[in-house]
Amino acid sequence: MRLPAKNAILLFLAALIWGTAFVAQSVGMDYVGPFTFNACRYVIGSAVLFPLILLRKRRTGGTLISRDDLRAGMACGFFLAVASNLQQAGIMTTDVGKAGFLTAMYIVIVPVLHFFLTRRSSLRLWISAAIAAAGLYFLSISGSWTLETGDILLILCAFVFSLHILCIDHFSGTSDGVTVSCLQFLTAAVLSWAGALLTETVLWDTIRQAGPAILYAGVFSCGVAYTLQIIGQKGADPGPASLILSLESVVSVAAGFLFLGQALTARELLGCALMFTAIVLVQLPEKK
Questions:
Q1: Rounded to two decimals, what is the model's pTM?
Q2: Among 45, 71, 162, 185, which is least packed, fewest CB within 10 Å?
Q3: What gap in Å lies between CA 63 and CA 88, rounded to an integer?
Q4: Interior angle at CA 237, CA 64 and CA 136, nearest 5
Q5: 8-41 burial by CB neighbour count: b if 16+ within 10 A, else e?
Q6: 23-78 pLDDT, tens per residue?
Q7: Region of residue 235 (phi > 0: left; psi between -120 and 50: alpha; otherwise: beta)
Q8: Among 32, 38, 148, CA closest to 86
Q9: pLDDT of residue 35
């Protein structure tokens, strides 16, 4: 159940990047629609990784893209496109704290889905997920709770992100992580462009205004962080992996304190403490 140190570090780095990239996602929505934002950043993400794939294949030889890589990239890309566009649309109508809480609820959904698929789980994982969910609540929700359209979109987003995590787990043993990451971005870019052209007005001027936010999300959130996720999940249990990835919510609060001067309340500090407790608990060595 416990993740190897290398996998845990890679997944934490992914959460670290996603937590800071949340600001870029919010800023970009001031200029372009959700489909356009995601379409642009996934094109950039695939463009960042493609030269690396060419360089690696030139050194090692063999097929540029295997059949397993193609299947994995298309499947993961489908779930990524659906989840990220639901998230971007939900951010438009929901406050940031509630959005962070609802999106990260995959920490509870993943163990449930994994149990029904494999009939394997552990009491410690369930306890850790419950502690983390409580921590996310204290970290993100401070006022009254009312269910809005954006909330429903973000709940659906959390469910689809859970399927994305399980999809990566399914293909991680038979495919190359960097190649799959590039192919999933290409797939997500095609689907997002289709949505943008059908439902949004795509203008170069607005894309240029959102350029810095799109560039940051494309290079770091996509090209770097999602690749770290795929490599970090290789051979790892998806339950503990999802708990570490959920630290993006803690990072986003810390980034607000460090870079925006947003003070942490006692409630938010309690939420951070519960989140870290859950991560430490799930990473403790199994009792022999």
A1: 0.80
A2: 71
A3: 36
A4: 110
A5: bebbbbbbbbbbbbbbbbeebbebbbbbbbbbbb
A6: 777 778 889 999 999 999 999 999 988 888 888 778 777 777 888 899 999 999 99
A7: left
A8: 38
A9: 94
